[in-house]
Design brief:
This protein is mainly alpha-helical and 231 residues long. It has two domains: 2-94, Recoverin, domain 1; 112-228, no CATH class. 60% of the residues lie in helices and 4% in strands. The protein has ten helices and four strands; from the N terminus they run αβααβαααβααβαα. The strands form two sheets. Strands 1-2 form a two-stranded antiparallel ribbon. A two-stranded antiparallel ribbon has the order 3-4.
């Protein structure tokens, strides 16, 4: 979310980028912060007074807002016009997370049609080949949908994909798969994708040297954005 509007990839936002982000996620035109309100918000959360919003400062603000109860957020919204708009923004983020979870479950259900709670390597291969286009339509993204690759991923790539996911979660989620790369459970897949929400690093910054392993995280990065927001 932060990186979507950090357009110059500087690792922080200026006033123009901050206002673009707030505007994009506002519920309607009435909640868009004015230039003055954006400056006030920057002063409020810019701890080091650099006149730029760093990612860690934004995360702290979001965590504070998301940890508030509905009653507390409503009370804060009555403080000023800026507080009301921040409250609406937080509400949009909560909706985005809920939308992500719903879309993620629907994505899984496309391939786990019998609702057994796991996918074989063949079904995971089907998901990797078609998921971009399916999710693009499912989440009503704008523009032309991506083309489905003519060739399915190789068995090696599918097993690597499953293995990377299983390596990031507790062994209990794939205890029935001795090799750790033959079956993908819904729990393991969901946890891996949720980590993509929490992980603020760019794929390029993760220090991944293996090109194919890096491709798994790139896939997750793109999928998380589509599952949560309409581009």
């Amino acid at each position: 979310m932060f990186h979507k509007f950090d357009t110059d990839r500087s690792g922080d936002m200026d006033l123009v980028e901050l206002r673009k982000m707030l505007t994009f996620y506002s519920k309607d035109g009435r909640t868009v912060p004015s230039v003055l309100e954006t400056k006030q918000l920057m002063q409020l959360i810019d701890e080091d007074k650099s006149h730029r919003l760093e990612e860690k400062e934004w995360v702290l603000l979001m965590m504070y807002g998301l940890n508030q109860s509905y009653a507390d957020r409503k009370k804060l919204a009555g403080g000023s016009s800026l507080h009301k708009k921040l409250n609406n923004f937080t509400f949009a983020i909560i909706n985005g997370i809920n939308r992500f979870l719903t879309n993620l479950h629907e994505l899984w259900s496309m391939y786990d049609r019998n609702h057994v709670g796991f996918l074989t390597a063949n079904r995971v291969g089907d998901m990797l080949q078609r998921a971009y286009k399916n999710v693009y339509k499912q989440t009503k993204q704008l523009g032309e949908p991506p083309a489905t690759p003519k060739q399915p991923p190789s068995d090696e790539d599918v097993h690597l994909f499953i293995g990377v996911i299983n390596s990031t979660c507790d062994g209990k989620h794939h205890a029935h798969d001795q090799d750790g790369n033959r079956l993908l459970t819904e729990d393991a897949f969901t946890l891996f994708m949720l980590q993509g929400l929490r992980d603020a690093e760019n794929v390029e910054e993760k220090g991944l040297r293996n090109r194919k392993v890096k491709a798994v995280y790139t896939w997750r990065h793109k999928m998380v954005k589509m599952l949560m927001w309409q581009e």
